[in-house]
Write the structure tokens for this entry.
Amino acid sequence: VVSEGFDHPALGPAREQLGGVEDERARHRGQVVAADQELERVTRDRQSHAMQFSTDLAALNGELAELSKRLEPLLKEQIQVTKRGAELRDQLRRVDAQIQETTASLVTVRGPKQDPAAIQAELATLKADRAAVQRDEPKIAAELDALNPRIAAIDARRTESQKRLADITKSEEDDKRRTEELLSAIGAKRKVMDRAAGDAETLRDKILFELGERLYVDRPDDLGPQLAPVDAIDLELGTHDRRLMELREILSSIDKAKLARGILVILLAVGVIGGFAAWLIYMLS
């Protein structure tokens, strides 16, 4: 077909058709190969992104666990210091109430008369107690001032880590969805191109078959030696086909009912002979 030294009226149109079909087939096959390569690239990128996400996720989870471990004792200490501050304020309120009550007893006109000196002594004791209690207030405030920035710093880092965790998780979900869409689109395109390539191959085979039939029927003299093996195969196939037809005719001419009756008669005769032989052996024994 491709040899320029061989000529036949059907070869020119066949060559043109085959050239166009083969170009189309090669183009579609190239697009199929490109789609396969794109599928592999997208799959590799997805695997790489998943591995990176797994690494980042483990690092962030470890960082959050470490921050929580560092934050827990500080929060406990903060709760204790805050509780001490609340108890101190309650104690100051109680002392202030006692001071007010004792001060009021100096000018009261009801009840038994009390010794002013004793009341002044009690007031002095209460004020001294208040001053002693109040001395702890700056210390508690200083402890809170030292704890709060540390807690705030760790809490800020934890918030940032949680935000990064949410970001990489969203990025992972987006990448999964995008990859699925890409794989679906590329796979659909590949199916279309593969089907088109298959149609082109079918058309090519059809053109070659029709050309072969044309060359076989209207064979040039130059093809005699090349077609001799084909003639031998055709002759052999024809002989086999003729034998098969003869066998089918012979089988179809057989009367199946008569054949069945004959087989039944033979079986009955064999049964009778067998029974007679068994009876004879029994009588002789």
User: Anything to note?
Assistant: The chain has a mean pLDDT of 83.
